[in-house]
Design brief:
Elements lengths: L15 H17 L6 H6 L7 H17 L1
Helix pairs in contact: 1-3
Length: about 70
């Protein structure tokens, strides 16, 4: 299985907080399987609400990746 680093489009030097949120979404999807979590779960996993969409991008990317394997 590929690692999240191979798929994350966010540069660590430019946006480390966003990269961490994206990684969280990816890992959550890999560990919990398909089925989008509720908003409360997502918000509990990010530092600020504005990062929820980035988290969902990571989740979505992992979902797409898992479906093609």
């Amino acid at each position: 299985m590929d690692s999240w680093q191979e798929h994350c489009p966010i540069d660590e030097r430019e946006a480390p907080v966003k990269r961490q949120a994206w990684k969280g979404g990816w890992i959550y999807r890999i560990e919990h399987g398909p089925g989008k979590p509720d908003r409360k779960t997502i918000l509990s996993m990010v530092d600020r609400p504005s990062l929820a969409s980035v988290w969902l991008q990571g989740f979505s990317s992992a979902n797409t990746h898992a479906e093609t394997e």
